[in-house]
């Protein structure tokens, strides 16, 4: 049996037909190494934006089922074009959309999770020596409706397919050449990591290191699938390997620093201090599929027997959250709701911090020395996050990168914009 | 049981989001009349051209399977947008691509014929009071490959779906308000016909009256399904009804005049005059799915024991035909091959000509009076076609329209360009 390698190319990698031809050559390079190759691609460059614009001209409130039907067409265009490009170089190739593969998801539109991937069709085409090109970001429900996977969807498609076919590894081709100790555009001295553990990558990506979506990393972790984050522009650079526990984790307590500008803070004031109120609040948000990140319940007690509850959510969920809170206002007798858009979450990540005391205090002292006010704090075993004013985020990241001695000799290579 | 009406809208009718909203209103108008409505749509305006351009940038010789996968995305965009538009007016609607419906075709790419259409999904959604919006032009093979139906595909989808669900009728919305005695852009005095028989419409559309593709008419005829050709711009004009034998057919011997500029004439010279040669020639063309229209075998015998064979095919098939003839040249000892691009086929159509003598001679005399040379002639029971020089076609059509007294009082309404 040949080894299978799954490759994923994002929207910027297939933005025009010239780039699609270059991607075809990268695919063929892997095939020529003697592997079976399955490729997962996103929609071309601005396709999704153009489709969203058309939908917006029709209605401000499109049905999720039809949005998924609409948006899924973008990937269907790129798989056909990439397959033609691979064939034009003399290789056997075949395009498959999610329905043709049998990528089954739950019956939730615009952010469905993958339940099951059929292997019959994939095995058949691989046995016939085809390179298989699959539409990322999309799936189908058991009754044949088209779904999309939401943010990080194509990465998740690729990793899930790789896990299903027991691939040797999954290569995520992007416009950076690996995972860095910090965003090189913010910290010019940032170093590329040769390897990183799933858990560290999960924390890094969950705090805005936009290299890979945490869902995809989580899927890789579950199936112990090695993932390489590597550059579309340099085929010889193997990038950063994401895998299990890494050898170097004890060397430095902190592996990377990251900023997340995608969140908004909501403060619900004067929430009645009785059992079940918080559960009611966060239960209502969960019902609308709104993920809550940091939560703090204060004991300020401006009003007797009440608390303030502050929490952060993704900015895109704000309209939904506001309507949930409006509905709750009467039911649970909420006070005012404050919304704070100008925040940044600055995080340090490292599997080594478990065994190193003083990491948290070093972080807080570094920020204090810069007169940066910490609005909220959250911690996990391998991450500490501080919510700060958005205007303080760049200097915070730079100072933390220095404080934890993350700078290296290698110069960062950054091309173009961030991948999808 | 409610009556089902199937409506088809071409690419110009859904060219932008404003027009899509207008189509939604036309659909809702039919629904409000108390009928169940199934809508079949083409790709928006220039979508197909844009996709063809992208494919052309990748390769000059794309695989038919991938071309079908690529082109089918156009209709998938328009069904989602039209469904959103219908929903935005407060009506239940659902989009379905060919795979979701189960429109099965033969396993031939770029010009597949429909074999079978599943009704389970359609019945389920109609029972839930949905307006169903289906992607025209596409189908799937039994092993899940995407196919397209070729020219006239969306009309064929609509009529085939209407026949399958035993619809009351199929309305083909287009940018002309019916079928005319001649193309009103060529003959300003052309009259709209209130009704026309399937056979007459078949002959009319097969000779270039670009209102409907003959495949769709043929499908309607097989299932005795009434078809209305009507205007997207005037909801109150019921257009022309295509149905069985019409009452008025004995009134005039000729119903309409049409020109077909899509053909090319090929003359294979000095073909050996022995049994089986013609069968070999046309068999080889049929094997490549090239339809041959007019055929004449001359007895000029410039070379002893040979004939010239002249025939016409669609211009798009010319490259394939040339390569077939090249291969045959040695096998059957063909002489030179002449290609004549500058031809037009001018036809008169009418079920009444069966019972009227002198129709053919009137046609030939009319052309002779104008000094128009007739290169080939073909006849059916209800049609006579003459191949003439392309520069003579307009005056030929105008003179024939006069000669057979087809002018009426109604002024032709023509909007925009020809439908797809």
Write a structural description:
The structure is a homodimer of 420-residue chains. Chain A has a domain of 171 residues: Acetylglutamate kinase-like (Carbamate kinase, 3-Layer(aba) Sandwich). Helix content of chain A is 34%, strand content 25%. Chain A is built from twelve helices and 20 strands. In chain A, the strands form five sheets. In chain A, strands 3-6-2-1-9-11-12-10 form an eight-stranded mixed beta sheet, with helices on both faces. In chain A, a hairpin with a 2-residue loop joins strand 19 and strand 20. In chain A, helix 2 packs antiparallel against helix 3. The longest helix of chain A is centred in the N-terminal third of the chain and has 25 residues. The C terminus of chain A is likely disordered. Chains A and B meet through helix 1, helix 2 and helix 3 of A and helix 1, helix 2 and helix 3 of B.
């Amino acid at each position: 049996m040949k080894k299978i390698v799954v490759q994923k190319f994002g929207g910027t990698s297939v933005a025009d037909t010239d780039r699609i031809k270059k991607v075809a050559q990268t695919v063929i390079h892997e095939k020529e190494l003697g592997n079976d190759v399955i490729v997962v691609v996103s929609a071309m460059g601005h396709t999704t934006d153009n489709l969203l614009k058309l939908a917006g001209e029709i209605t401000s409130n499109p049905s999720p089922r039809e949005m998924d039907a609409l948006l899924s067409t973008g990937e269907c265009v790129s798989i056909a074009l990439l397959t033609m490009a691979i064939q034009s170089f003399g290789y056997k190739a075949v395009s498959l959309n999610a329905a043709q593969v049998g990528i089954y998801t739950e019956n939730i539109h615009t952010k469905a999770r993958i339940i099951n991937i059929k292997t019959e069709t994939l095995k058949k085409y691989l046995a016939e020596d085809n390179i298989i090109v699959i539409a990322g970001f999309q799936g189908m429900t058991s009754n044949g409706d088209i779904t999309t996977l939401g943010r990080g969807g194509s990465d998740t498609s690729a990793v899930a397919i790789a896990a299903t076919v027991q691939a040797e590894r999954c290569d995520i081709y992007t416009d950076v050449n690996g995972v860095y100790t910090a965003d090189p555009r913010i910290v010019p001295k940032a170093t590329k990591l040769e390897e990183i553990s799933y858990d560290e990558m999960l924390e890094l990506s969950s705090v805005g290191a936009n290299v890979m979506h945490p869902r995809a990393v989580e899927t890789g972790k579950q199936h112990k699938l090695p993932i390489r984050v590597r550059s579309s522009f340099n085929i010889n650079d193997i990038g950063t390997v994401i895998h299990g526990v890494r050898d170097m984790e004890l060397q430095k307590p902190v592996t990377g620093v990251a900023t997340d500008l995608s969140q908004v803070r909501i403060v619900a004031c004067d929430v009645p201090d009785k059992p079940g109120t918080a559960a009611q609040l966060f239960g209502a948000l969960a019902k609308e599929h709104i993920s809550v990140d940091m939560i703090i319940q204060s004991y300020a007690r401006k009003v007797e027997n009440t608390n303030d509850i502050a929490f952060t959510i993704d900015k895109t969920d704000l309209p939904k959250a506001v309507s949930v809170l409006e509905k709750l206002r009467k039911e649970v007798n909420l006070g005012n709701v404050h919304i704070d858009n100008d925040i940044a979450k600055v995080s340090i990540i490292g599997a080594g911090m478990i065994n190193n005391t003083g990491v948290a205090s070093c972080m807080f002292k570094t920020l204090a020395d810069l007169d940066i006010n910490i609005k909220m704090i959250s911690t996990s075993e391998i991450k500490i996050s501080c919510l700060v004013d958005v205007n303080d985020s760049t200097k915070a990241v730079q100072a933390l990168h220095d404080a934890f001695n993350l700078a290296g000799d290698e110069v960062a290579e950054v091309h173009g914009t961030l991948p999808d």
